[in-house]
Design brief:
alpha/beta, 38% helix, seven-stranded parallel sheet, homodimer, 269 residues, 11 strands, four-stranded mixed sheet
């Protein structure tokens, strides 16, 4: 179906989802923008690993990105794949030079349990991270090093924030991501799996990351950008680890610290 | 001197410098914003390691950030330290919730030579990096790991771009940064110092970063975010190194790759 009006209900739904976390949660839907990112999502949908609610593209984008977007879907699956007017695209686009390709996708719901985790796996846990760019970068890095999964407590910024999804650059579709209510429940499940939990801290007394044995199942917890992991949560972990360096350690941002730790976790493989 | 007007020449100079690279280069001046960042700059100025052209602060900021900004300087050094009207501050502020503290600083000019480099030092070279956020993050990480210096070829984005300075969070004042015209000249100076140069590449045939001997003087070159280092420049380096991983290596962004390499360079210390 061709969409010419900004008042089309699907267009209204898209803009609502793009700006409101509440709306995303109520509908269990999220939005994506960009030819490559949407192409990856469509790929996952073809593998039946992602639900897609709606796809929107301008005719210009279909002509410009044939390697990313299969235009035949817009006729064969026209209830889901919509060509939209340039003006409608302007309303949907969040970045200045929007590519004119958009998706409404369905949130997937990975349940954290001793059956869904690999007991010898390598996991990263995000606890109270607030910057969407950091969360996205950490997802990318987990994907890059081949981590077995990412666990996010829901005091973090929203996984489906458009900015997070942009920074994550499709890693979300390749990773096992678990969003959980409560950190203590996360620790209980990890304990059940014999996965050792480490709190990443800035503390000279903690174990050095490069002297840590990662040969078994392990989960490292990264905390808030400014305040780190709160004491009660550190106490729930089996141990504490730190990155020991000679420089001005305060200069290491949360995503970079996570990256160095992930690198150390995986180099032992 | 109290500044009430947006038409004050110093205010006009600030806004020009904030938006124009050309103006920064012509005047050899740059701008900074934020209480903590300006406080670090003033600290360096007191140590006579940074020139300061002008400091601007609202009265509100002086009251709010006494731990950062010494208000006595605004009377004792009133030719340089100016209290500005809130409206003037609004004109200067680049971020939404500006803190009301601003500096015009003088660029320093570190000359790259066999006398200014430590022959057993650890250096990072940025070649054609275009994202100010990445450059800032890499500066922060060099500071965190205690690298001996950073060399930037001037095909990179501007070191004094306000966004770079914000991401670098004061690391610029703690690091030896050399900005150079030409990559081949950089390689010549490094060679003269017997500092071994490695091109960081995405190539399975290159030497693994964690199997590399960093016990001598070494400089690692990081290239453009999308295209890496161009062939001719790789050929100028002594050797090539890479980060070998099982995951989707393409997901590693330039700043994260630099961070992992810096970590490996410094862990041998």
């Amino acid at each position: 179906m061709y969409i010419a009006s900004k008042d089309n209900p699907k267009i209204k739904l898209y803009t609502k989802l793009a700006t409101s976390k509440k709306s995303r949660e109520e509908n269990a839907l999220f939005v994506l923008e960009g030819a490559r990112l949407c192409s990856e999502a469509i790929g996952r949908w073809k593998e039946k690993k992602l639900d897609i609610h709606s796809v929107f593209s301008t005719q210009k984008a279909l002509d410009k990105y044939p390697e990313y977007i299969d235009s035949t879907l817009f006729t064969s699956r026209s209830e889901t794949f919509h060509i939209v007017d340039e003006k409608v695209s302007e309303k949907l686009g969040e970045t200045k030079n929007s590519q004119g390709v958009y998706i409404i996708g369905g949130m997937s719901n990975n349940i954290l349990s001793d059956e869904t985790l690999k007991h010898d796996g390598k996991y990263l846990v995000m606890n109270n991270l607030q910057d969407p760019g950091n969360v996205g970068t950490i997802l990318r890095t987990c994907d890059a090093v081949g981590a077995d999964g990412v666990i996010m407590t829901n005091n973090c910024c929203d996984l489906y924030n458009p900015k997070t999804l942009r920074s994550a650059m499709g890693s979300l579709f390749r990773l096992n991501v678990f969003v959980c209510d409560d950190f203590s429940e996360v620790c209980e499940v990890l304990k059940k799996c014999n996965i050792k939990t480490y709190a990443a801290v800035v503390d000279r007394d903690a174990q050095a990351v490069d002297k840590t044995d990662f040969s078994h199942g392990v989960a490292v917890v990264i905390g808030n950008e400014g305040r780190g992991i709160q004491k009660e949560d550190v106490a729930l972990c089996d141990s504490r680890l730190t990155i020991k360096m000679q420089g001005n350690i305060e200069s290491l941002n949360a995503a970079m610290a996570a990256g160095i730790i992930l690198w150390e976790m995986k180099r032992s493989d």
